[in-house]
Specification:
By secondary structure, the chain is an alpha/beta fold. It folds into three domains: 177 residues, no CATH class; 170 residues, no CATH class; 145 residues, no CATH class. It is 31% helix and 19% strand. The chain has 14 helices and 17 strands. The protein binds 2-acetamido-2-deoxy-beta-D-glucopyranose (8 copies). The site of one 2-acetamido-2-deoxy-beta-D-glucopyranose has 2 residues, from loops.
Amino acid sequence: MLYRLAFLAAALAQTLDALGQDTSTSARCLALQQTLQLENTTVLDVAYIPAPTNVSTPGSCQSTAPVTSAPLCRVQFVINTTSTSAVHAEAWLPDTWFGRFLATGNGGLGGCIDYTAVDYGASLHFATFGTDNGHDGMSGLPFLNHPEVINDFAFRAIHVEAVIGKQLIEAYYGVPAAKSYYLGCSTGGRQGTQAALKFPQDFDGIVAGAPAADFNHLMGWSGMLSHFVGATAPPDAPVPDTSPKFIPAALYPMISAEILRQCDALDGLVDGIISEPDDCDFNPQALLCPENKSDNCLTAVQVQTLKNIFSPIIGEDGKVIYPRYSPGAEGDPAAPNFILGGTFFPFTADWERYVIHNVTKLDFTNFGLADIALLDKVNAGGISTFDGHMSAFRDRGGKFLTYHGRRDPLISSTNSKRVYELISKTLEMPSLDDFYRLFLIPGMGHCSGGLGPTAFGQGTAPGLNFVNASSHNILLALVDWVENDVAPATIIGSGANDTERTFCRFPMQSVYNGTTFVCVE
Ligand SMILES: *[C@@H]1O[C@H](CO)[C@@H](O)[C@H](O)[C@H]1NC(C)=O
Ligand SMILES: *[C@@H]1O[C@H](CO)[C@@H](O)[C@H](O)[C@H]1NC(C)=O
Ligand SMILES: *[C@@H]1O[C@H](CO)[C@@H](O)[C@H](O)[C@H]1NC(C)=O
Ligand SMILES: *[C@@H]1O[C@H](CO)[C@@H](O)[C@H](O)[C@H]1NC(C)=O
Ligand SMILES: *[C@@H]1O[C@H](CO)[C@@H](O)[C@H](O)[C@H]1NC(C)=O
Ligand SMILES: *[C@@H]1O[C@H](CO)[C@@H](O)[C@H](O)[C@H]1NC(C)=O
Ligand SMILES: *[C@@H]1O[C@H](CO)[C@@H](O)[C@H](O)[C@H]1NC(C)=O
Ligand SMILES: *[C@@H]1O[C@H](CO)[C@@H](O)[C@H](O)[C@H]1NC(C)=O
């Protein structure tokens, strides 16, 4: 309650004070340019944004970003993290503030403030922050021979976002944030996981979607997928793929149709969605071209390609290095056109070139298990993020919500089960329900979209028709858990035409009961 009073005091003080100084919200905002004095931090620009507008953005990521949540105070600043690295950041500080701090994460190897997420947080009255994760743009080139830039990316950018963000909030609103939250997906999901592991005091609650956890093995798996489809050309110098192993995009609809034929009914409803891809024992042999037929079918080599894609990567010791590609996820457009496309997967290519081998040119022809071993050995910036020791976060009362689309074409959702099991085993807690909940989202692609109702307030795509209720909104569900001790049993997704679907928390499964999908043990 205290923080709501502080907000009222701030909003009502739109008059001149006894000394004739302008104490309006816009004047208090603009004054930050001179008054803000935070460690290692330089204020670059301050603007008061009174109404919805498009604002320009720094760096090479986007040229404009919409603000739909006005009025707010926008502060652009840079935090020096070492003498050779810096994190550029922004604060969007809404006039109507509910006393909460929200840090947002990044995507890919970026490098880009997630303005969609920042605006989303501000629209829900969080003082919301975003950073460039220590470098500008989506390329990994800034990592080359810059270990401190790698450290920012691997763990430090979110930490300084939390430390400086909290100080900035206190400087602006006059009171500290009552609670601190984090929201991110993909790389952002890894950053949230890393925050809970390395800086357990930074956040009271974390939403970490589709985490790029076990990062070294994820890079290795993505590289192996390129290897399986015979795509060895560097992403920035593409050559037409001529490998017999390659499967052209035009063949994927046929492959998806066969996968659905074999597995769509497993969850009880034939609707184009495989709710539990780990139950799908897809046999690609059915697609082999019969004698004298060559169109709309696969060669024996291509059948083997599919077998490789849909098998886990196993190390020489027989242990799983990374789970398999989820059957059904190949139907997402990012599968044939990106991760299973005709050039070596760009994120792995950049990490291999600029971080592991420290060169600008590298031959990806023989990418294999030895490369994965080297990724592990270098573990640049301690980026692995595959560690079950979350007791410090649990013991400080932290709450962790994670979700993963079961049709995710870029990061296997099975890995999120694997992370759950690692934490469970490490902490000797058969159920993590007390502080950590994983929601698997049937039909959803990478972080959002896909098939069926997959909008639940994750803030990752503009215009998601989020519902302002904790039952339907994972960020508000987190707030309810942290502030009212009400943990979400389910999350309800919304979609077109007022459709909804209930998402189950792991290890419960989503099964059709003849009327609707229900969660069963
Ligand atoms: C940050 O680093 C830059 C470049 O090295 C330097 O000019 C600036 O003074 C530093 N700012 C702070 C606040 O330390
Ligand atoms: C922002 O720019 C887009 C594209 O130019 C335009 O459609 C939209 O109306 C603008 N929004 C505002 C609030 O000005
Ligand atoms: C400021 O930077 C120095 C290193 O340059 C670091 O040791 C210190 O922790 C930083 N302070 C904050 C608040 O990040
Ligand atoms: C969401 O609902 C709460 C009341 O439950 C209200 O205070 C808040 O303004 C609403 N937020 C938005 C963005 O509509
Ligand atoms: C395939 O084509 C060859 C050559 O035309 C022919 O001899 C053979 O009978 C055909 N096989 C089938 C199964 O049609
Ligand atoms: C590349 O640099 C990293 C440090 O950033 C180092 O760990 C790695 O061994 C270097 N690789 C080679 C091949 O020298
Ligand atoms: C929504 O309903 C309209 C009208 O029935 C239909 O044309 C459209 O395809 C539906 N959208 C989805 C995503 O189901
Ligand atoms: C399926 O579950 C829903 C929600 O629990 C319930 O209302 C409905 O009666 C169930 N249908 C059947 C056929 O069991």
